[in-house]
Amino acid sequence: DPRFNNETLAFLQFLSQNPPPQDNEVETMRLYMDGIHQKINKKLHETFKGTIEEKIVKTNSTEIPINIYTPLNVNKDKLVIYFHGGEYRLGPEYKYPIWLDDALEVTQHIIQNRTAYGVNETAKIGVAGDSAGGMISASLSHLLKGIDFQILIYAALDILGEMPSYKEFTKPMYFLTPEFMKWFTTHAFHNLDEVKDPRVSVLLNRTFKDLPPCLFIVADLDILRDGNLEYQKLLEKAGVQTKLVLMKDVIHVFFTLPGIFPQSCAEAVDAIRDFMASI
């Protein structure tokens, strides 16, 4: 695709040398995806300036480990809960709604106990996430009171695959293909009825009024693009404050691979910083 920028081309070159497994087994795919992140982002490990603390949040049915990143000289008036990664229980071992309920319970716990997580009593709390994590963040913004802002990074909002971008980006070079999405939904849900639940297919909600301000970071060459554009329209129409940043010439997954997409990630982080300063 002539629209690919140099970072996207470098990633595709990497993929040609590290092709995905053919068997599509869950454990093989997990090892493969972990391997991609390790190889590409290795040079960035240990570069975080601040403290990283591990905690356990007890929910009704389990204990969920969380990592708390506190930068040096940090302002204590905002906290972001980020999904995907995340230690909520995953499909296919734990299918919907378990992973969403885990995310909801942990978020609720942090909202109610914010000072235990290094911020002020009056601190604003936001949810953020990429891909499936963006879907979880959008969902929680409907389900929970007390979320002050949301940051959706190429969020999986059109998981039913009804938008035009699903037909536009079908080739493997776009990394996330309709077949790949089907693989994910098969492992995350029991059946199609669950996929149609507005708790996860947020485009199917009847009202979008009074949702927290929302920043969209959207990859231009991504099957999930149009679902995000459509969701922004619905929020705007309902009077919700939104900002959409369309990242040109990049594909899905760029934000989690700063080792190969440094410029694109820096642009996205600048947009996130500006948005959070405006809240």
From TrEMBL:
Residues covered by the Alpha/beta hydrolase fold-3 domain: 87-255
Claim: Ligase is one of the keywords in the record: no
SUPFAM superfamilies, sorted: alpha/beta-Hydrolases (SSF53474)
Keyword Hydrolase included in the entry's annotation: yes
Keywords of this entry: Hydrolase
Entry-linked Pfam families: Abhydrolase_3
Gene Ontology terms for molecular function: hydrolase activity
Protein name per the record: Alpha/beta hydrolase fold-3 domain-containing protein
